[in-house]
Amino acid sequence: MKPALIRLQINHRTVEVVAGSSVAAAIAAAQSSAVFRRSITGQPRAAFCGMGACFECRVRIDGTGQQRACMVPVREGMQVICDE
Amino acid sequence: MNDRYDVLIVGAGPAGLAAAHAAASHGARVGLIDQQATAGGQVWRHDVRRALPALARQSMRNALDHATVDWLAQTRVVTGEDGGLLVEDPKSARLLHYRALVLATGARELLLPFPGWTLPGVTGAGGLQALAKQGWPLAGRRVVIAGSGPLLLAAAATARAHGAHVAAIYEQSSREQMQHFATGLWRWPGKALQATALKAKLLGVPYRCGSVVRRATGEHQLQSIEVDGPGGLERIDCDVLAVGYGLLANVELAQLLGCTLQYQGAHAVVETDRYQQTSVAHVYAAGELCGIGGRDTARVEGAIAGHAACGEGAAADRLLPARRRARHFSDALDRCFALDARVHALAQPDTLICRCEDVPLAALDGHTDARSAKLATRCGMGACQGRICGSALAEIGRFPRSGARPPLFPTRLSTLAGVELSHFHEP
Ligand SMILES: Cc1cc2nc3c(=O)[nH]c(=O)nc-3n(C[C@H](O)[C@H](O)[C@H](O)COP(=O)(O)OP(=O)(O)OC[C@H]3O[C@@H](n4cnc5c(N)ncnc54)[C@H](O)[C@@H]3O)c2cc1C
Ligand code: FES
Q: Does the model's ipTM exceed the 0.85 cut?
């Protein structure tokens, strides 16, 4: 059985990923060298620990900032903003 | 909204699931919470492409489908006091009361600083495995796996199954240490089988012992790495470097509740008696939290804790021999993957140690404890609350981690405003 696809927007661009994917995975699928956030000195950062511990993957999801993209499953129509 | 449980369990990995099943089998009303959206913990993490092993599915059914078990996904513990936990889910916050509490919060990876470790493209080893299982695209990407421990093999196998080209695995332990371990593996036939199966999945992938990744380089994204191995320095181009140095217990909640910890090397685990009871009355701990032991240890300790939390000592007693056997294996693992001095010396003066606040190693010179370093440099003050840098600094011998403080995770203001902690003292 083919898994269902979910459509969401990453920085206003539509991406399609399999259901059950994390927002982190969708961001990486949208752009292969994606920047999730900037560090306080302006360095580009991306998902690192993959399991909710490091907070490097923080993005804005449906208007709420500082969400860990690796901990949130994708939902249809979700709006994700990274590297604000 | 308040809820009351006979047994409340934090963490739905192998340990928490086994505890829920055991407690529910005695008729207890069980609450099982996890901050993840799906149960299974680390080892049985939901994979978007592949079905879970039969044992995982069975363990989940046993716990989650039980009539007296409430499964609370995407729910994390913010703080706790005697008899109650304040938890938060994506929508709301609430207090959960318990007669007995089982902590099964598992382990995270030990991630150590080295030049270039903050570049996008560098992840943890188990970290990459977790990302891949949740759909992180790896098809056609050139991946190097490095660090230490059996998790490197599991991570490489997952990366490969998701279409990655795994260029090599670099293990810091020496060939002699590894051979010694491999020849002892016959004492755990199940583990030997797992090892053989993994080997088959990794056919053709070079596995290099005594090798440490010294630096990662790239403009805005990882491009290449430098490896220090038995044959000298080597430079390798890759898209992804997944590097992890083993596991450490998530003791923060237990620490907050006042459970006595015990140190295994630089890192703490929770101390328990034979029934998995911690130093705090009615609070039990099981699985990786009590010392890194893997899936089988987690399952048996979870079950012991679940029985004991219901006062069913006889049922717990029957499992004690299995627990002893499983723990022997983890002791052997520890000896084999002890970290080499080179690994402790990877960070350079300008290497960022605290990734949240961008604090370099040199800024920490002269500080002998986490508190003074924090006040002077903000090291450990960021969103991860020192989970990464604090553990790394303890490992490389700078200073021990500081104690846990509420909230355990950055929390919505409404969560803290909406409840008074005095509610915890309700009968
Ligand atoms: C990234 C990673 C990958 C791994 N891969 C493998 C593998 O492939 N094979 C293998 O044999 N072993 C693997 N392991 C080892 C693994 O630790 C054990 O095999 C096993 O999963 C331990 O079971 P556990 O129940 O003790 O903890 P875990 O499985 O770690 O479960 C703990 C659970 O508690 C939850 N939790 C923690 N704190 C809170 C909180 N405050 N609030 C709410 N929920 C919380 C976590 O979300 C997690 O789901 C891996 C470990 C890690 C860290
Ligand atoms: S990648 Fe570390 S918290 Fe998400």
A: yes
